[in-house]
Amino acid sequence: MSAYGRMHRKEDARFIRGRGTYTDDVNLPGMLHGAVLRSPHAHAAIVSIDTSAAEAHPKVKAVITGETLAGLRLAWMPTLSGDTQAVLATDKVRFQGQEVAFVVAEDRYAARDALELIDVEYEPLPAVVDARRALDEDAPVIRDDLDGKADNHIFDWQAGDKAATDAIFERAQVTVAQDMLYPRVHPAPLETCGAVADFDRVTGKLTVWCPTQAPHAHRTLYAMVAGIPEHKIRVISPDIGGGFGNKVGIYPGYVCAIVGSIVTGRPVKWMEDRSENLMSTSFARDYHMHGEIAATRDGRIQAIRVKVLADHGAFNGTAQPTKYPAGFFHVFTGSYDLAAAHCEVTGVYTNKAPGGVAYACSFRVTEAVYLVERLVDVLAVELDMDPAELRMRNLLKPGQFPYTSPTGWEYDSGDYPRTLRLALDMAGYDKLRAEQADRRAAGGPLMGIGISFFTEAVGAGPRKHMDILGLGMADGAELRVHPTGKAVLRVSCQSQGQGHETTFAQIVAQELGMSPGDVEVVHGDTDQTPFGLGTYGSRSTPVSGAATAMVARKVRERARVVASAMLEASPEDLEWAEGRWAVRGDPATGKSMAEIALAAHSGLELPEGVEGHLDAVCVYNPPNLTYPFGAYVCVVDVDPGTGQVKVRRFVAVDDCGVRINPMIVEGQIHGGLADGVGMALMQLMAFDEEGNHLGASFMDYLLPTAVECPSWELGETVTPSPHHPIGAKGVGESATVGSPAAVVNAVVDALRPYGVRHADMPLTPANVWLTIQGRPFRTDLAIP
Amino acid sequence: MQVPARFEYERASSVGHALMLLERLGPEARVVAGGHSLIPMMKLRLAQPEALVDINDLAELSHLAVEGDELVVGALVRHARLLADAEAGRLFPILHDAERVIADPVVRNRGTVGGSLCQADPSEDLSAAFSALRATAVIQGPGGARTVPIREFHTGPYETAVEPGELLTELRVPIRPGSGSAYQKVERRVGDWPVAAAGAVLVIHDGVIAEAGIGLTAVGAAHFAAPEAEESLIGQVPGEEAYARAGALAAAHCEPQSDQRGPADYKRHLVGELVRRALARAAERAGRGGLR
Amino acid sequence: MMITVTVNGQAHTRDVEPRMLLVHFLRDELRLTGTHWGCDTSNCGVCVVHLDGTPVKSCSVLAVMADGHEVTTVEGLERDGELDTVQKGFVECHGLQCGFCTPGMMLTARWLLDRDPDPSEAEIREAISGQLCRCTGYENIVRSVRWAAESEAAS
Fold first, then answer.
1. Which of A168, A187, A372, A746 registers the highest number of CB atoms within 10 A of its CB?
2. Which three-class secondary structure string do you get for A341-363?
3. In the predicted model, what is the mean pLDDT of residues B287-292?
């Protein structure tokens, strides 16, 4: 009997009773509360900071400034891209919302009050807001803290074959170019970031509760930054109220909470408020892209070339493997059979918050998919060809896998045409096109149909290619089987809602012939779990899930030896069938894992050199990424009089390889689709010319509600990953990656009668109306 | 989470008690009812009243009934209650249209009609609806009650005719036979403040428009009204031509500002479009006219 | 000031500052941490509780305003060891992932079903439109509420 399949989640029992433990639910005896004072300016020199009035507040225990931290050599910390970031500003502030001082008080109300008592004198400086002006000769230099830095340039990077690509473009029958912006957005999990730090002066042990997606990486970085020995640091990532990439990095507030605890000798809690979360923690995207596509007149796509200007904010804090400053953006050739491709990416500093995380996306794959899927639609308009037909004509064929892309990726497996066909069938594509034609002919209401076909690259990654700050991206797993046959799995990755406690138990159960209910999954506590790089980039199942299967197989092999002693047969004569070890050809002799476990802990005589017990440890180093894919069809209705867009239908066919718990897989896809609708239609962080953040609360940073979301229509195909132990590919982010392009393509399709070929996200009513008027605008700046 | 600064708190047990408390606590005191607008502003420290007078216990302000030829809406009537009231919806569909798009159902459970009007946010939907309806506000002060036409109630953004020490107690809406009304809003997302919105009230007698009321939200229209557009409709035969002309006049006479909801010219366009649509809907509801 | 609030049927008396928000009263004073908070502007709805039987956003209600009133939180949904049908529905239909919005969603759902035992999909979506969920795309929340409605109709 398979342990895979739909199964209620183990974690639900506590959540539906309000019994989860999130970071702000942690309450320690004597705990103090911290609050961060932030910069009101995007760019300003700090003339002076007077904390005396705050210190005099009867409930204030400590006020920490950059100067305090400089004395501890903690004023600056490394970012995930190897840059440095100010923990508390010393010289100047470089974005609105930057951390300037930290107050520790007896309660959260007093801490907040005391912020108003700190007097900071600033000397405002001109701000760099528009990334396209960051490299101007006269642009103010943001990072004058870096030795000899005289401009705002961070890096130039390229991938692919420029000469081959240019050659194709030179002789191509058709070429089309399109500028497009993937604006700055924010993952905005409903639980904000925060930490409870408890430094024990007697034992020298630091315990940090923090909703981190990467507890082990945090521990190592704290050891490196704070100089506390790593075995004296315990990071506990309790229940997390959503992460989506926002909770990968280490934020200044965490360091401040730790310093606050060291200084006061008491536990310190710091929870950011929503404005702090939106203004200062990791944003995503902010890619200004110029894409070109070359094709034959009959719709054969030959090459793509891209130039990107990447806005990284005031500190280069992008989370991605060291080798790839633009993440996996160069997977932008997508799902198509191209002869050549090339991209150039330039990263710049601006006076905005640092970050650049994989927001439900594997390291810039979202930008890549958006680029190629928009370009293909632009080409379809140019060729006057149906976008479904154009895609079908150019998709990779099943026989081409494993496929090496022009930019060097090795796609593991896929049957793309089958998936696209299923999506078109489910949507009733031909009927939709007929309806659209009828409406256009009658001058009726506008409707649009958008398609997106995406290939993800997830599960980072092979150690020889991928590391973050020198830490290889392999994950450990430990599995103990107790004498009565119940198991405890310990994994390094941490769930932010993905249901690891259920799915990973199912993997172990499947490998060992047990019930998932007999497997407890321990995660989120560095003292109790093996090392690993965490949960992001859809890597839980591809990496930790693989480690889980592998460690269970180790246990199974150990069990084989014990079973052979029980059955008085040679291990080679046993076979694993129906969840038991049995003498080959004689299933009646089968021994269950529970029987074997008891025997393994008993006085049973074991072959020489066999230690007994069944526990095992392993580390999984992925040989390659996995490549989930999917085909999405979105149908929208647009009111040209107001510019309002209504998503009428959304069909999503995902292929993520083997599905362990289809219920959980579908839930992940639902969430990602809502994210896609949000980004396409409303989510945006724009800035005015002074660098003021224009989306610093949920009143202005709009997230989709149940009303904007249609009832999602899901389909599936299954193409197992050939190299993953259980053939799974990961799915957490597929829908977020694939859906924005489908929505935008649908809206642009609806506006085709107006000659519209492209419009940047988000397609708010104002944006749609202006686009109809032929007046597209820069969505990342203040509306003029 | 953000938390408010300190303040004094008193709970009023009657209108008289509330007025006494307001007098004692002085001009820096604020009345709180639902609190779903004021308390977030206090958390963000955009509002820092020294004292709050809680009027949630004042059952005498929770009345909602037809009295003579007026619908009387107590200041403490919750949005959800007004939205659920069949009689109010029958008489004034514009009120239900507007209530349906104010914030969200949970906020509407708590927020009050009086609170919305006194908050006097230029983007507040009910202000335009009552302006279109030419309602009358009743304000109670230490010296007794006074009435203020709704179009004199709002004296500027976040400012009203309610003086320190006074309390808005009810709104009175004249019932007009043969009338129809509607409210149309464009928002970036459900529950958002409007990009722009328009309310329309038409009274049609003998096939011509006898009375017209037009309210505008979030577009810098003085007193949330569009008098030029209203005037243009009087004596006209209901129809697309008259509505479009009124829409154009309303658009020409408002003063929308560009912000992240959209540029001024888009908002101006919306005024024309939404006035036209609201008028058509109002006429349809009045039982004639419409888009024939 | 001294206040008494009845929470999940039990009266609690505490001395609080007038500015203490109801959500902090529940979480910090009573240690009922099932009620969460997620924004400052009454937009996200993860703090929804029932005040005298009606859902409100407890981040925008002062604890002193609840003096003498009744509050129900997620911890009060289960009665005598029996889960509320809505709670069962959320498990049955995978109506939650990270669990952060779940208490508020369930409390609004309970209120909706008490007023309308057979809400349509559109009515459910409208009822929860002031509450954000970042995980589920709302699909399975809607299904969970429908499951609860059908389950209650059948019993």
1. A746
2. EEEEEEEECCCCCCECCCCCCCC
3. 45
Pairwise CB contact (< 8 Å): B54 & C65: yes
From the list B40, B44, B191, which residue is nearest C130 (CB)? B191
Question: Among partner residues B9, B52, B107, which is closest to C42 by beta-carbon distance?
Answer: B107
pLDDT above 60 for B289 = no
A441-492 confidence digits (pLDDT tens)? 999 899 999 999 999 999 999 998 999 889 999 999 999 999 999 999 999 9
> What's the confidence (pLDDT) of residue A96?
98
Read off the pLDDT band of B292 (50, 70, 90).
very low
Look up residue A67 and give its two tokens.
């100067």
Contact across the interface for A770 and B190, Cβ inside 8 Å? no
Distances (CA, A) of A165 to A177, A231, A309, A338: 14, 51, 20, 10
Residue A195 forms beta bridges with which residues? A270
pLDDT digits (tens, 9 = 90+) for B65-106: 999 999 999 999 999 999 999 999 999 999 999 999 999 999
Measured between alpha carbons, how far is A228 from B244 in angstroms, rounded to an integer? 72
CA-only gyration radius of chain A, Å: 27
Q: Is the pLDDT of residue B134 over 90?
A: yes
CATH architecture of C2-76: Roll (3.10)
**A287-401+414-460+624-772 CATH:** 3.30.365.10
Interface check for A162 against chain B (CB to CB < 8 A): the answer is no
Closest by CA to C106, choosing from C66, C75, C60, is C75
- Each residue's pLDDT tens digit, A245-272: 999 999 999 999 999 999 999 999 999 9
Question: CATH: 3.30.43.10, 3.90.950.20, 3.40.1190.20, 1.10.3470.10. Which one for B8-54?
Answer: 3.30.43.10
Whether residue B290 is predicted with pLDDT greater than 70 in this model: the reply is: no
pLDDT in tens, A411-439: 999 999 999 999 999 999 999 999 999 99
Q: How far is C68 from chain A (nearest CA, A)?
A: 24
Output the CA torsion sign for A547, A552, A558, A560: negative
Alpha-carbon distance of C42 to B36, in angstroms, equals: 7
Whether residues C130 and B3 touch (CB distance < 8 A) is answered with no
The CA distance from B18 to B30, in Å, is: 11
Where do runs of H (alpha helix) occur along A155-273? 162-171, 215-226, 252-264
The ipTM value here is: 0.98
Question: Given a cut of 90, is residue A307 above it in pLDDT?
Answer: yes
CA–CA separation, C71 vs C77, rounded Å? 11
Nearest to A511 by CA among A448, A560, A562: A560
CATH of A475-620, one of 3.90.1640.10, 3.30.365.10, 3.30.1460.30, 3.40.50.2000: 3.30.365.10
CATH for B59-174 is 3.30.465.10
A residues 631-660 near B, CB within 8 Å? 641-644
Q: Cβ distance A672 to A359 under 8 Å? A: no
Give yes or no for A708 touching B (CB within 8 A). yes
Report whether C116 contacts C60 (CB < 8 A): no
A662-673 b/e (C-beta count within 10 Å ≥ 16 → b): ebbbbbbbbbbb
- The residues in B 221-260 lying below 8 A from A, measured between CB atoms, are 258-260
Domain A12-125+190-242+247-280, what architecture?
Alpha-Beta Complex (3.90)
Cα–Cα dist C50/B109, whole Å: 10
Is residue B117 within 8 A of residue B130, CB to CB? The reply is yes
Where exactly are the structural domains of chain C? 2-76, 85-154
A714, A713, A738, A732: which is closest to A660 by C-alpha?
A732
